[in-house]
Amino acid sequence: MRKSNEWVRVLKFVLFSASAGIIQFGSFALLNEFTEWRYWPCYLIALLLSIFWNFTFNRRFTFKSNANITSAMLLVLAFYAVFTPATTILGDWLAEDLKWNEYIVTIINMLLNLSLEYVYQRYVVYRNKMDNRN
Questions:
Q1: Could you tell me the residue ranges of all domains in the chain?
Q2: Which pLDDT does position 4 carry in this prediction?
Q3: Can you tell me the distance from the alpha carbon of 25 to that of 8, in angstroms, rounded to the nearest whole number?
Q4: Strand, coil or helix: 63
Q5: Torsion sign, CA atoms 21, 24, 27, 31
Q6: Which pLDDT does position 90 carry in this prediction?
Q7: Could you give the 3-state DSSP secondary structure of residue 130?
Q8: Which residues contact 29 (CB under 8 A, 6 or more apart)?
Q9: Are 65 and 132 in contact (CB under 8 A)?
């Protein structure tokens, strides 16, 4: 693939991830401000909402893949089986025990997710299954 096409793919991924980030940050803020919950359930619910949004749009428009949706989703779930507990536990520790600002912790987790998820989806989930969607 030409480098210019890869930059277009990265740009699309970042834009769709930004829209998922708005969903994640907005839902986190609503839960954080209007419930008495600890950091972790607010973060976890918001993360799950953004995962479904991001997967759906990136599969169709960024990677243009007709890969089996079940196998692609299982690979994405494998990523989040590691990422979610790590960032949920670390985020809760930073926000609740160390008293870091919960919005800063969430933004750090979102930026980490953006970079790691692109690499994982590009080179694991859709490695040989890109640009084959009509």
A1: 3-125
A2: 73
A3: 25
A4: coil
A5: negative
A6: 97
A7: coil
A8: 103
A9: yes
